[in-house]
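Run log, item B.
One chain of 268 residues. Sequence copied directly from the ordering sheet:
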Amino acid sequence: MNEEGKIFTGPRPYQPNANTVRGRSVRYPQQQSKQRRWIFKFSLGILLICALIYGWLKLSNPDTLPIHNVKITGTYTHINQNALRETIMPFVQKGFLGTDTTSLQDRLQQLPWVYSATVQRIWPDTLTIALTEQQAIARFNTNTLLNPYGELFTVDPSTMSTDLPLFIAAPGQQVLLWHTYQQFTAIVAQLGLKITILGLDARQSWRLQLSNGLILLLGKVDPAQRLARFVTIYPQAIANKSAAVNYVDLRYTNGMAVGLKNQNMATN
């Protein structure tokens, strides 16, 4: 410092900082308030998370919200009651919130004779299950069944009805056989007969068996037309001796071959 031409070189006098008091930092009330708010929010967040975890663990406990009612709706005759119970119970034992309805629905749809299943929870203690049973319209290759949607499904052979028609063909042709069966059924209905077996071989040749045991060989060319011709001829040429006839071969342009159970004969 220069004063009246003199220079002073001694230590500079101490000047306290605005934020310190005697060498210590000073926190203003505004800074302290922000810090307290941040600590409060952080603590509240931790407390909330802990409360949510505790609440979820508590509610997930099967003893907290047990399932007291299981309601099964739908009309069915073939679905096994014991199989239903064994499938449902492990899921029910997990409680209302612990029951995985999607997994239970998938498991139910894997049971024999179950076409579809819908599972819902109804607060606070009920599980509803809507079942739709498979509808069998025909047997396909002995151990498989066909539903009206053209889908094949497998069940215990002992639960299959022998009254269903039997379709014999390569896999993948079940829809064709069902449509053909309906067409052929309308034709033979004029005779008061039904089709019990309908087959399509590897050469695409049709054959069928009627409810009176008679076998018809239709071939692969205009099978419906050949069947209609048989219906026209049957009352006069075959009806009175049908018990002795084994098969009728309609693969002829202007006639048919009749195979008797003891011998064969041709009819023009």
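Observations after the first pass:
- Residues 69-133 form a domain with the Ubiquitin-like (UB roll) fold (CATH 3.10.20.310).
- The longest strand covers residues 114-122.
Flagged for discussion on Thursday.
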